[in-house]
Amino acid sequence: xxxxxxxxxxxxxxxxxxxxxxxxxxxxxxxxxxxxxxxxxxxxxxxxxxxxxxxxxxxxxxxxxxxxxxxxxxxxxxxxxxxxxxxxxxxxxxxxxxxxxxxxxxxxxxxxxxxxxxxxxxxxxxxxxxxxxxxxxxxxxxxxxxxxxxxxxxxxxxxxxxxxxxxxxxxxxxxxxxxxxxxxxxxxxxxxxxxxxxxxxxxxxxxxxxxxxxxxxxxxxxxxxxxxxxxxxxxxxxxxxxxxxxxxxxxxxxxxxxxxxxxxxxxxxxxxxxxxxxxxxxxxxxxxxxxxxxxxxxxxxxxxxxxxxxxxxxxxxxxxxxxxxxxxxxxxxxxxxxxxxxxxxxxxxxxxxxxxxxxxxxxxxxxxxxxxx
Length: 373
Known about the structure:
Blueprint: H1 4-17, H2 21-28, E1 31-37, H3 51-64, E2 68-73, H4 77-91, E3 96-102, E4 105-108, E5 111-114, H5 126-130, E6 132-133, H6 134-142, E7 147-153, H7 159-167, H8 170-173, E8 176-177, E9 189-193, H9 210-218, H10 226-240, E10 248-251, H11 287-294, H12 300-309, H13 316-329, H14 350-357, H15 363-367
Parallel strand pairs: 1-2, 1-3, 3-7, 7-9
Antiparallel strand pairs: 4-5, 4-8, 5-6, 9-10
């Protein structure tokens, strides 16, 4: 049988089930992320190797998940303020916002502060004018979107914070924490820390910190609610650090569970969406796909093809019955009458021979033994 009609049905079926990233984004809503990685600090003692790697990898992953991503690598204070302004503009009209930071951070009197590349703490006044307060980030997000997620990989050992702490009087130095403090947040916020409040996180011996490496791995798993995702991240970090680093999170999210990866498994390299290749007519087709494609078919040979290709399938018998019914219902065309040959159409000379061979007027009587009067 020819598979042209069946191939068309299969192609239409494939087009109905294959979605492009744009279609997926329309389903989950507009999601915007600001991803920051700072490692090239002006003071050599503060330099970190992995944050730029962490941020670039995280940005690529979030883009594949349908986020509109703003990436900021090794920004100074002014650059950080500018990128927060861009983030604020991009969040307008969005359904969810995400902030990811990898780099140095510090707690000071209950406030969590992020270090741009030019951060230098000489006096206590520098805390308010040289560092980025996380309250600024939260305010930008809270005024723009109802759903907010923050991932802070900012608890690495911080020489600048240690030096600053030692420069303060003993009655004030206790206000400088080596990790981050637990933050208060408005309803609709999820916050994840690379380690427990007040603890220090590892920068990692490989290309990524243990926290970000675990996130990159588990973001490939579709369908995980963000709390489930973080539990998997926590287990992976505990295993990678011999239980010395415990990622921490708290949530005031409301409504439906927030799922970062709402698509099939992510490929390492982006590729444009393609329709599945239809197999040749001689190759067996998957039974379920073929059966769906045949729905509504009035071609007996197509139903026979199913029965012959999948004889062990329970639906093969139904396919045979449908083929028989359709074949019986198809009217049989009458055979065409034999072609008439005219004398004029015979070759030259054949006309005389035909006329000579034709029986004469008395030939029938002679054959019956009758005589003409």
